[in-house]
Specification:
Order of helices and strands: HHHHHH
GO biological process, one term: C4-dicarboxylate transport
InterPro entries: DctQ (IPR055348), TRAP_DctQ (IPR007387)
Membrane topology: Multi-pass membrane protein
Protein name: TRAP-type C4-dicarboxylate transport system permease small subunit
Largest sheet: none
Radius of gyration: 20 Å
Strand content: under 5%
Number of helices: 6
Transmembrane segments: 12-39, 51-69, 90-112, 132-156
Length: 167
């Protein structure tokens, strides 16, 4: 199972790296456009700053997905590293990952219906009437779901390490 999850996560990682690159590129382009239109042409764009903010949200949340895979989120490493027994240390790491998994599952459970409800309300962006806010809000459940999948790989690897320590 670990090999399958790792293979899928490898593909997701490549896809997310491309997506984040595109989002960041778009963000830079729209911000440069805003500066040019505001200060050179004296005709500021009403939508570019807002769109850049939404793109930043995508960079933030999808970047967090990649951090789960690398186990680079903020944690209590000082506490964990102070535990001398490697078996107990690994148990605590697994419990922490499981609690993160539970938290992300709750986020998906509650944020997905909320985003769908916002889509149904047909709330649109104040400066871009073509952009439904529900689609922007959908970033949270999608990124949280992808984080669950990345965290599953981390948990499976941690359990495999626990088995090695036990032997």
């Amino acid at each position: 199972m670990l090999k399958t999850v790792t293979y899928i996560n490898d593909m997701l990682t490549r896809l997310l790296e491309v997506l984040i690159t595109l989002l960041m590129t778009g963000m830079v382009v729209f911000i440069v456009m805003q500066v040019y239109f505001r200060y050179v042409l004296a005709q500021p764009l009403s939508w570019s700053e807002e769109l850049a903010g939404y793109l930043f949200s995508g960079v933030f949340f999808f970047g967090a997905v990649l951090l789960y895979r690398e186990s680079r989120h903020i944690n209590m490493s000082l506490f964990v590293d102070s535990i001398k027994n490697p078996f107990v240390r690994q148990i605590i790491v697994i419990v922490a990952h499981l609690l993160s998994f539970l938290f992300l599952a709750i986020v998906v459970w509650y944020s997905y219906p909320m985003a769908l409800q916002i889509i149904d309300f047909e709330v649109v962006s104040p400066s871009m009437e073509w952009l439904k806010m529900g689609h922007v809000f959908m970033i949270v459940p999608v990124a949280s779901f992808l984080s669950l999948f990345m965290l599953l790989e981390v948990i499976l690897k941690s359990i495999a390490q626990l088995k090695e320590i036990r032997q």
